[in-house]
Amino acid sequence: MSFIGTGWALLPAVVAIVLALKTKEVYISLFIGIFIGALLFNDFHLFKAILSVFEVMMERLSSTWNIGILIFLVFLGIIVALMTRAGGSQAYGNWATRTIKNQKMALLSSFGLGVLIFVDDYFNCLTVGSVMRDICDRFKISRAKLAYIIDATAAPICIIAPISSWAAAVTGYTTGDGFTLFLQTIPFNLYALLTIVMVLCVIFFDINIGKMKEHEQAARQGDVFNGKCDYGKAQEMEVSDKGKVYDLVLPVIFLIVSCILCMVYTGGFFDGVPFVTAFSQCDASLGLVIGSFLTLIFMFLLYMPRKVITYNDFAQCIPQGFKMMVPAMTILTLAWTLGSFVSVQLEAGVFVQEMLNTYNIPLFILPPVLFLVATGLAFSTGTSWGTFAILIPIVTDIFASGSSMLVISIASILAGAVCGDHVSPISDTTIMASAGAQCNHVYHVSTQLPYAMVVAISCFAGYIVAGITHNVFFTFIAGLCTLFLILFCIVKKNKQNDN
What we know:
By secondary structure, the protein is mainly alpha-helical. Helices cover 76% and strands 0% of the residues. The termini are far apart.
């Protein structure tokens, strides 16, 4: 019996996710999911299954894109260790404490920085986390809350930013003038827009849903990790007393600028290619690696002549930074392997395509259906971009170029893919958000899920209206009203429980 291209293809991801949420242990859960995928792929031949586990893992690790992301992670870890060792993080924290007066301002600063760094979701997660962790700790904000803010301003912001690696990916999966089509989807991308509204409501009204309340209560008592920290801390090193605020600010600014320039360089911008086109065809992985490497050189030149740290201190930060990123790198490797078994070896996309082709779905109900399918597929595979690649071609074959239903349907796919990616424990972005906030990964997933589901329900309602009216105003209002109604009920229930 062949399990390839059937509903069984989703089983490994489902098992891994359920185990991770149940046991609070992500490494073994992911590996069990991988092994189940290998057994299904090899028709339960034990030795072949074991062999294929490591063949697929090595294949994923041999990908130049994935290797680039791992190197970027290491460089980011070293950069954070250096900023901490040089006293830049401490100086910035002292300044921020005087400037940022309360928890609300700290969370708004995290949100604002996340919106500002819209170029790439990996870059966003790690940079915002490294800058804001200490500040949020000072105001007793849980790492779970910080991880949610980071994650909610990563992919949801990138998917509506015309100049981003995500816009480049979507453009590549469409036909004709892909960039113009991407711009048309932005007003209909309910998950991105309503997530922004949701984050602002959470910040201004201190809305704690589900297990987030437990984490916030622990943070108020001084335990921002709620008892479990997986990440080694650079703060364990001796901190220089010569550090200034600009020892953190300048490297962060240099990192942002250099990464953007290096990304467009790989797309041919300095060879005469237009900026937007260069972004659409850039190698984001390579650009991030080069940009972060140049930042390390910049930091060496910034710190050493001023004797903020010694040469030996600089060298010690290299293994320290690497060590900080080991949990994220381990989870990423396992997630990539599991995702490969689900989407490539077992061909989950074939199952989804056949399912959509088999059922004669009325066109007006297609947007909410596509939203649900994209959410489920991205949740199971842990990849938004893979979901784009599977579903967008199906929609472009159904609707004529330039039709409003084409725009709405693609927008619903983009929204669903980001939603599924947002809540999936095996998603790269979710893992990066955990790493950026240095929050236990399962804690982040379990506390973020209720918030994302509230937005997802609101999106579903909005896309029902979109399929009927084709009107962006009515679509957004329907989603927004649903969101506010759900939040009103949650706040009211929380007040009753508190009384």
